């Protein structure tokens, strides 16, 4: 990974390039030398848990705060599965491609299903389930989806309902990686409330890191089977932060008023503005623009010229074209989006 | 773990009950919306790594920032060992007692050696090495010590030199858990510089969480054998924080000037003041007072009365007496130490 | 491990130095080129399973054949435990000392309890259970005992009943390593039938390797909680032998008539004859002689002279004396026991 | 898996449906009550190791005997890899499909490459290597191939040389699953000697179970990097059979004279006779017939009628046709092959 070059006007690499929303930092600073209980048993974490339960309208849900997304994924999945059980994921799923085998390091196979625009569906899941017939093969037991997906798309209610129904009929847990859950549920392509979403899955997390927190994710467990002894799993996998209050305070700040959704809406709005501006210039996108991640397909030469002006990752090679990933964040200034589109127009 | 009761005058539970030193929070706030590279590849982390290499006077050392101590322990140990290799630890060692089997969860046995005041020595280590004779037994390969120990004591230079010599002669890695390294190296009982300490071990960490950071530890690897591919281990074990800059910024602030050592000296001074006051009242201590952790032995009834006034953990039952643990932190006000001693005198 | 020296008159190293009882080999040879189903689904294994269920008088028990004892131990234990759960074992337990960390390699800690003559008891087990109080520590969930023990002793009915009662009252599985179960249940010190034994534990194995089989152990699961999906565990841990019939045929032969118990009785009788002869010469034993393993304490010089005449393992150093281990097997000729005792008398 | 139905004329399910070649059983019986050292340190295993080193003409190779193929695969692979390293396998590879996640249970991801007729090649391997670019992804370190493959085909010398060259240039271990190595190296499609084969890989096993042994595989390690401490891995993974002599004796018998290759030649000859007869009747095969496994494609109705007469597994659905797997073994009578072909002709 290359270092920032000063000449770059703005970086659209991802949504975790800026530290934290001022309200989050202010809430931390406000604590002063107040003493608190360790390991997430403090009153701030309690209040943040209550705020999450209120937001999803599920008062019986369990909530645990964990430093990062890979950590959250591996703990929930390893806790849910017996040794011979496996996960079904999109072959693009973060756990399958970008977590250095963290799931396998806990002993479990990731079985991959083909995706459309980053989303898997019932036929793909069922194909995996049906392929694994006996004790010579792993037993798929948990379906992993990302909401929004690694390609910026979102599952709508009908899509998620179908997956949820299949999972419940087939004794599969359904777990959603919500690193960008704010972007997903605030997308114009999404027709679900937090409550509706939460009811369709067995566990998910509300991403903080990519939506204004300094760090931290809120794992929500709605299925009673997955709740018992969970703090043992957290501690064994090194996720019980001594100063757990640092996570609780942040989520309390993020969930105050409408801040969490406002930040996601801002990121989405700028992502979709990028998409609209790019397609208006005649370029195609790899996937439908639905959230703060946009994947335009540019001629390689154009992409290279843009690389000298803006920070972003190349995505996939398509012969003499390349897709790139542009990500708008809660902190992206609209002026930078306008500047990018103006520069693109000039280069086109 | 019980919740805070309002009536408590002050809490001596541990050294992570207060959030963070103001300089740390100010440094974080100063970042504003500056964009940075992810996963610890930012300039702040680079500068913090340089500051650590300068402090230990070992320019070739590798430095990685990790969220917490259990996380740091399990990653270093799992990275150092082949599947059949084991750790030697004090039976009081944090990895053996209070990490929910995190080391075993990576596949490795912890072999325990007896301790004196929390410290192990060459005969104890050698007994374990000599006991394991062939392929029907695990092969001890790494010695784990805590500096300072779980009982507040420190290894002095001669003690550590002897262990280090034995380890190097017997192909054992020596790793020090430095959750309270500041307290240790700033103890009047310690006669080692950071450089001298760092040269005697193969890896160690400089604890941030227990010495003024919001969260975070700095793992230092001095043995070249342990350096390669370490970021793969970090990512697989979920320790590559997306906003790694949040760790770098904190360590840069802690290592500016003499802050890190000042905070440890403050905690030590108050711990030793507690110890002196308690022994002046005729009570014994479980272990020699050397750092910010003190273990007085009180009649059970006295301990119970103190519980209604101060927060602290009981340690060990001794018939009609009990040892308790009092911990002073970087944030403990001297007035609270004075108040505790006055109350104790009154109750005595 | 040293190679056999020709001059040795006889080897009392262990009870697996001879290949297999002739009936076992004959049963294998009788199969000719009969075709059978793989992986233990053959009719011979079915009949052997029925024979075991009949012998223990528990028609609902599940039975699985596995190549060896370490393999059986790790599979049952790893299948029974969730990631944060631990085993309680004697510190002399085979899983704790002589399986190269096989249990830890499946992710689980072994917590050790002190033993008397190789046996643990309720106070020792309860001490471990009570020590582990919260999510910062592993949670003991399974008690491992060996029947007979690594020191040749046996749990009698009252002892096992007490442990069983404690385990059931405290949600602990009780698992017995029966590598030498024949020796145990046919010991004069034992007052339990196979049925009584089987009812007091949740799982155990009937050892074949050390009682006349070419190889193989029969794992018996009596607790319904531990039965589901067990063949998945077997396959994942590489214990589903392609020609599982080779195991079934052997156990069918061993369980025909009274052969299995006859072999154990023979080994016990010779072990106890050794013990009686040795004590008659004025020597002490490390533990009460109850089965085919005997642990005399000899002057070091005497032990060394015996080493030049017989094969056996030294056990423990006791200053100028040493304990040794003598093991009689199903195949040991009585003449060799007589010869050993005569030689010992001459040397004494 | 269904039980044998009596009406079946012969079973072509696999090459492990018959117990063992008479020479193997005779060699075991010949041992009588000879005493031997445990855990593979006996003289029979020593002689068998020497016989293997002589056969492959590599006197420095290490040889270990292990009960079965899945066991051998997981031990070698887990021993070769550091935690973050991964295997590259055909998506049809036995470790990827039929070992219940045994590799993942040791912590390692299996990355899959597409195959042609069961064989992978350098472009497929390179695609996996090149895809994994940094510490956010596993690092492929070992290539797993099967010789012969799960589809009955064999790598010829040029194909294996190319893979071997690529692996050595890219710091990848090359390991061959030789469950059917006899069939492979005695195939008319193969132009390699045992020595040439052994020199091109870093480790492989010579399958006993599927070529006349009662049970057992001989793992051969030719790369010095993989040799140290291997018996620790064997013991930890429960593969050090107490009566290791039982494995040594069998391999000594199989390697006496030309027996091992004779058995493979017999199985291949009958497999190829089946293939020739089937194609002569106008049916296609799924893959080129090269060894003892043949995959004819039959109309579904024909396959169903054959099912009532012979034992075999269905392989893959192809609309109104189905491929089936027919396996000839060292013990298959030629008359049964003739009978099958006659019945097929009649049904056609």
Overall description:
4 copies of one chain form a homotetramer. Chain A is α/β, with parallel strands linked by helices and 348 residues long. The first copy, chain A, is 40% helix and 18% strand. The first copy, chain A, is built from 14 helices and 14 strands. In chain A, strand 5 (139-146), helix 7 and strand 6 (173-177) form a beta-alpha-beta unit. In chain A, helix 2 (43-56) runs parallel beside helix 11. Chain A is globular. The A-D interface holds A 1, 83-84, 86, 97-101, 104-110, 134-138 and D 1, 83-84, 86, 97-101, 104-110, 134-138.
Average pLDDT, all residues of chain A: 97
Largest interface: A-B, 56 and 56 residues
C-alpha-based Rg of chain A, rounded: 20 Å
Structural class of chain A: alpha/beta
Give the tally of β-strands of chain A. Answer: 14
Q: How many strands, what sense, and barrel or not for the largest sheet of chain A? A: 7 strands, mixed
As an assembly, this protein is homotetramer
Percent range for helical residues of chain A? 25-40%
In the sheet with the most strands of chain A, the strands line up as 2-8-7-6-5-3-4
Principal-axis shape of chain A equals: globular
Order of helices and strands of chain A: EHHEHEHHEHEHEHHEEHHHEEEHEEEH
Q: Which stretches of chain A are low in confidence, meaning pLDDT under 50 for 5 or more residues running?
A: 1-5
Q: Give the termini distance of chain A in whole angstroms.
A: 28 Å
């Amino acid at each position: 990974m290359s270092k920032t070059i000063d000449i770059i006007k703005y970086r659209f690499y991802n949504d975790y390039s800026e530290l934290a929303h001022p309200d989050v930092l202010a809430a931390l600073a406000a604590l002063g030398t107040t003493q608190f209980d360790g390991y997430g048993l403090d009153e701030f974490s309690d209040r943040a848990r209550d705020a999450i339960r209120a937001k999803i309208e599920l008062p019986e849900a369990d909530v645990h705060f964990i430093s990062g997304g890979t950590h959250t994924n591996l703990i929930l999945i390893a806790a849910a599965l017996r040794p011979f059980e496996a996960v079904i994921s999109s072959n693009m799923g973060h756990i399958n491609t970008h977590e250095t085998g963290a799931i396998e390091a806990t002993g479990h196979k990731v079985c991959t299903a083909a995706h459309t625009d980053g989303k898997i569906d019932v036929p793909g899941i069922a194909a995996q389930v049906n392929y694994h017939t006996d004790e010579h093969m792993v037993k798929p037991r948990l379906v992993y989806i990302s909401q929004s997906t690694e390609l910026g798309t979102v599952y709508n209610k009908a899509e998620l309902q179908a997956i949820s129904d299949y999972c419940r009929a087939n004794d599969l847990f359904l777990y959603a990686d919500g690193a960008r859950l704010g972007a997903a549920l605030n997308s114009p392509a999404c027709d679900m409330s937090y409550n509706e979403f939460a009811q369709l899955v067995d566990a998910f997390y509300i991403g903080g890191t990519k939506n204004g927190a300094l760090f931290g994710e809120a794992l929500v467990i709605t299925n009673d089977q997955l709740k018992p002894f969970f703090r043992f799993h957290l501690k064994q996998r090194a996720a019980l932060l001594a100063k757990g209050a640092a996570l609780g305070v942040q989520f309390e700040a993020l969930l105050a008023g409408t801040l969490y959704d406002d930040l996601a809406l801002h990121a989405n709005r700028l992502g979709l503005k990028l998409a609209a501006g790019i397609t208006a210039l005649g370029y195609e996108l790899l996937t439908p623009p639905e959230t703060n991640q946009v994947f335009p397909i540019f001629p390689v030469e154009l992409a290279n010229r843009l690389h000298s002006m803006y920070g972003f990752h190349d995505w996939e090679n398509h012969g003499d074209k390349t897709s790139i990933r542009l990500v708008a964040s809660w902190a992206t200034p609209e002026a930078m989006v306008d500047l990018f589109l103006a520069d693109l127009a000039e280069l086109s």
